[in-house]
Amino acid sequence: MNKHDDDTTYAIGELAREFDITPRSIRFYEEQGLMSPSRTGQNRVYLNKDRVRLKLILRGKRLGFSLAEVKTLFDMYDSNPNSAVQLEAMLEMTEQKRAVLNQQLEDIQMLMTELDDVEARCREELAELKRGKIA
Amino acid sequence: MNKHDDDTTYAIGELAREFDITPRSIRFYEEQGLMSPSRTGQNRVYLNKDRVRLKLILRGKRLGFSLAEVKTLFDMYDSNPNSAVQLEAMLEMTEQKRAVLNQQLEDIQMLMTELDDVEARCREELAELKRGKIA
DNA sequence: ATTGTAATTAACGTTAACGTAAACCTGTAC
DNA sequence: GTACAGGTTTACGTTAACGTTAATTACAAT
Predict the structure, then answer these.
(1) Which residues pair with A40 in a beta bridge?
(2) What's the CA–C1' distance between B2 and D12, in Å?
(3) Can you tell me whether residue B60 is helix, strand or coil?
(4) Predicted confidence band of residue B82 (pLDDT cuts 50, 70, 90)
(5) How far does A84 lie from chain B, in Å, by closest CA?
(6) Which helix (H) or strand (E) segment is A52 a member of?
(7) Residue A1: pLDDT band by 50, 70, 90 thresholds?
(8) Nearest-CA neighbor of B60 among B49, B72, B48?
(9) From start to end of chain A, where are the E strands?
(10) A51: how many CB neighbours lie within 10 A of its CB?
(11) Are the Cβ atoms of A98 and B82 closer than 8 angstroms?
(12) Is the CB of A59 under 7 A from strand C?
């Protein structure tokens, strides 16, 4: 029996704490059509599949996907699971993100070099100040 | 004589086309205190130093810096480059940014790895589909 | 003189992803 | 029974970085 058994249920606050987000965010994801938990009376009850969905949403965000993009992927998966079309759409999206990340890497390298320059000039001027050359 | 000679001037539309942004954006950067081009009558005239600034702004954006953060950096660089206090403040700032950039590098590496995983699983499932194992 | 192109300021509109406040219900603890 | 800790809906507020008119100006060509 696993800790995250299939019939374990969660309140909204529990999930919020576990993933370090606010209940508001979770309700917002539902409002955007990304989750649809069941209810007990008026209270939301989350099953393990909902928890997994939430995890996927957050990972998507970390990967730089917007909620709308995540929803697109979910919808495709829900309507036609494991279809070649859906898988290829997914691949296309990851490729895109990869390109963005590569661009960012390049930019960071360049900025690092510039930081080196600025820093070097700073240190030089500081040294001259201390030698009293400018005072 | 370089193509981007020191006394070459640019109209706002030229810069916009060169960097593939709108004139509105350039005016907005000025409004935020990131640039201050000179004027001919009421028209903005950009020199090479302005062009360089714009380049830096856009690189900052690609790096995920907000315009406010870029402005902070500019202000530091512009203000009193000869005072020891300012120089050391600048050094501290660059060190901080360097730390942030290193963190971002790490994050990007991790995201890349995650993308690799997602992609690999996609390709596997696609392969199985094509072998007719699921059909 | 008119058309066209590029520039200007001013000011309201937009998007994403929630934050925040109000007013309410509800089960458990004391 | 009352306080409290959680849950609920509704709905307006927030931030960044521009977009999008509108109304006007100025110069260049036909």
Answers:
(1) A43
(2) 56
(3) helix
(4) low
(5) 6
(6) helix A48-62
(7) low
(8) B72
(9) 38-40, 43-45
(10) 20
(11) no
(12) no
Q: How many CB atoms lie within 10 A of CB A61?
A: 14
Nucleotides of chain C touched by protein CB (<7 A): 6-9, 16-20, 26-27
More confident residue, B131 or B12: B12
Q: State the Rg of chain B over Cα.
A: 22
Burial (CB count within 10 angstroms: exposed 0-12, middle 13-18, buried 19+), residue B15: buried
A65 torsion bin: left (phi>0), alpha (psi -120 to 50), beta (else): beta
Q: Are B37 and B46 in contact (CB under 8 A)?
A: yes
Find how far residue B30's CA is from the centre of its chain.
Answer: 15
State pLDDT tens for residues A96-109. Answer: 878 877 877 887 78
Assess whether pLDDT exceeds 70 at residue A49: yes
Residue pair B16/B2 in contact by the 8 Å Cβ criterion: no
Interval B67-81 mean pLDDT = 83
Q: Determine the nucleotide nearest to A57 by Cα–C1' distance.
A: C17
Query: Residue B37: left (phi > 0), alpha (psi -120 to 50), or beta?
Result: beta
Q: What is the CA radius of gyration of chain A?
A: 24
Count, residues in chain B: 135
Residues 53-112 of B with CB under 7 A from strand C: none
Kindly report the average pLDDT of chain B as a whole number.
84
* Spatial CA neighbour of A121 closest among B104, B94, B128: B94
Rounded to the nearest angstrom, the minimum Cα separation between A7 and chain B is 27
- Report the amino acid identity of residue B23: P
For residues B123, B127, B129, B132, the Cα torsion angle rounded to the nearest 10 degrees is: -170
- Prediction pTM value: 0.77
